[in-house]
Amino acid sequence: TGADKGNIQRFDDRTGMIRLVAQRGFDPAFCEFFAEVAGSDPSACGAAMRNGLRTVVDDVRTSPVFAGSAAREVVLAAGVRAVQSTPLISSTGDVIGMISTHWAEPGRPDERQLRWIDLLARQAADYLERTAREEELRRLNEELRERDRRKDEFLATLAHELRNPLAPIRSAVQALLL
Q1: What are phi and psi of 141, to 5 degrees?
Q2: Where are the beta strands (DSSP E) in 13-149?
Q3: Counting beta carbons within 10 angstroms of the beta carbon of residue 67, is it exposed (0 to 12), middle (13 to 18) or buried (19 or more)?
Q4: How does pLDDT run across 84-94, given as a tens digit for each residue?
Q5: Where are the beta strands (DSSP E) in 31-154?
Q6: Which DSSP symbol is given to 60?
Q7: Strand order in 95-103's β-sheet?
Q8: Are 95 and 87 in contact (CB under 8 A)?
Q9: 134-144: per-residue pLDDT in tens?
Q10: pTM of the prediction?
């Protein structure tokens, strides 16, 4: 897309925020400030999270999205003048993350760049959903293995405990038969 910098954020179910998981071109101060973003935060990704639609900021200095916020100063200090944030939407329609691209000069991505970002966003959303399902399957398999291990342990204990009291009964029955 010709962007100078970029980042990907993933939605955290526990906090209800998006968390920075990958970035290119940003310094630690930017990454720390945007480590977690809420939908109510004054930022392009916060706005995109709120409305579930791409947010494009042509010029950070004049945009109402960043007006009067600390985020505006952090973004400008990082050398960013324009930004777009596209939500990663799950197959069920939920925002599961964000892909943002940043430019050093004011401007707006053209239609070709926006289509490219949409393609990347769809692929990223599919990947995140697939990995979440794989993680859930791994967790369920581990839980099943643990339950199976506990069942085997219980049956072994039960067999051992039943063998001891049954021995005298078996001997008594054999004595009675004689």
Answers
A1: -65, -40
A2: 17-24, 36-37, 55-57, 82-89, 95-103
A3: exposed
A4: 999 999 999 99
A5: 36-37, 55-57, 82-89, 95-103
A6: T
A7: 36-37, 17-24, 5-12, 95-103, 82-89, 55-57
A8: yes
A9: 999 999 999 99
A10: 0.78
